[in-house]
Design a protein that fits this description.
With 106 residues, this protein is mainly alpha-helical. It has one domain. It is 84% helix and 0% strand. It contains four helices and no strands. α1 packs antiparallel against α2 and α3 packs antiparallel against α4. The longest helix has 25 residues.
């Protein structure tokens, strides 16, 4: 169950990075709404991470959490913010995923 909580925490990390990206160049009410989304996702992500590490080793849980957030943010950057999907970027994202799976398996 705590692995599921950790995955959801990583997805909230991706969500707060997305909100941060959407805040760029915004003003007024729209900026405040994205900022509230950022703060809400940040709190949810940290709280879920804290719950997950009650039974999971921190040396595994934290890298998995950051890895999920990193991969999710790269994918959202490509899909939503029109960032380049170069071979090198995809290659290193795949190696990051392989490292996360490796940490989970040991």
């Amino acid at each position: 169950m705590n692995w599921i909580i950790l995955i959801v925490a990583g997805l909230f990390e991706t969500a707060f990075a997305f909100c941060l990206g959407k805040m760029k160049g915004k003003r007024g009410e729209e900026y405040r709404l994205w900022a509230m989304g950022f703060i809400g996702c940040l709190i949810a992500s940290m709280w879920l991470l804290a719950v997950a590490v009650q039974t999971l080793p921190i040396g595994t849980a934290y890298p998995v959490w950051t890895g999920i957030g990193a991969v999710g943010t790269v994918l959202l950057g490509i899909a939503c913010f029109h960032e380049r999907a170069s071979f090198a970027r995809i290659f290193f994202m795949v190696t990051l995923i392989a490292s996360i799976v490796g940490l989970k398996m040991i």
